[in-house]
Amino acid sequence: MGCGSNQYGGNVQSTDCIRDVIRKIIDAQRKVADSQTVSCDTSCERSIESLLSPSHEQRPHRHTTIPIMLINKNGKTFVGSGLVGKKRGSDHEHFKCVESPVFRVRGFAGNSPNCVRLEILLPVHKQYDGGGTDSGDQSHHHGKGCASSCNYFGKSKIKNFRDTGLCITVDLDCFCGITCLDPITPIPV
User: Which letter does DSSP use for residue 9 in this model?
Assistant: First the structure.
């Protein structure tokens, strides 16, 4: 499926289209951050419009992030992973592995038009109250190289996503599709 005239709806195909959508997401997120100082129901175009709308769908405040998922050239959802250090004082007490197919776009890496920095976002399955009820620490991955994001999360209902502070750099030439979720404000680390 090519980009055609509906280049932002649902899953966007082609590296050039992905690059264009990523640029629009970065621009939209910067506009929201600057102002706050910090035809599908779900599509990249609608998510960008919603992020920039002053009050969309009775939301009390503007969101800051359009979460994305990327589809590799084999048609599988890309899952990012890495280790996050847990700090106590100035020493690292331990490292914890995190993985998720959902990302926040942080920006292009250097002057590269193809390499983009993505922050891994973890799902929040329960009401997060800061007191440990966030179940985003649990792994819900159902097999490496998931063909779909639905397989990754199973039947878990996701209420929001949480920052991890873990950023990875990816080459957009490695992907053929992008899915944009509705705008959110991730729960801080």
Answer: B
Other beta carbons within 10 angstroms of residue 99's beta carbon come to 17
Tokens of 118: 């993505």
Question: Rounded distance, CA 112 to CA 143, Å?
Answer: 32
What confidence tens digit (pLDDT) does each residue in 42-75 have? 788 888 888 887 655 555 567 899 999 999 999 9
Instruction: Tell me the C-alpha distance between 72 and 179, whole Å.
Output: 12
Measured CA to CA in angstroms, residue 44 lies from 17, 25, 137, 178 at distances of 11, 8, 27, 8
d(CA 116, CA 22): 8
Q: Name the DSSP class of 131.
A: S
Question: Which has the closest alpha carbon to 63: 41, 34, 32, 31?
Answer: 32
Helix (H, G, I), strand (E, B) or coil at 187: strand
In Å, the largest CA–CA distance within the chain is: 53
Q: Which residue has the higher pLDDT, 142 or 55?
A: 55
| Stated pTM of the model | 0.72
Contact 68, 102 (CB under 8 A): yes
**pLDDT surpasses 90 at 154:** no
